[in-house]
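Tutorial handout. Part one gives the primary structure; part two gives the three-dimensional structure as tokens.
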Amino acid sequence: MFTGCNFENSSYGLTMCAERVALFKALSEGAAKVQRIAIVAETDILTPPCGACRQTIWDLCGDVELILSNLSGKREIVSLKEIFPRPFDVSLL
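Part two.
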């Protein structure tokens, strides 16, 4: 298990989301394959990954399982392909 948190700054375009932090940490520490990513947020509505995270997850992991959860215990499991149905990847280059 690898964790991440948001790294935000005044230039929002340079913000690094928790999903990418955790993914980069896992890969840099030798994880061979990521099978699922859990996203837990202190929100009422379950929070899926942003567009930049969806693209990065697709490029590095493919169609992985996403566990969306909040602190109230609400949970939903979806595949990346469900929320990112037409990803741009190396096959389109």
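Part three, for discussion. Residues 12-87 form a domain with the Cytidine Deaminase; domain 2 fold (CATH 3.40.140.10). The chain has a mean pLDDT of 92.
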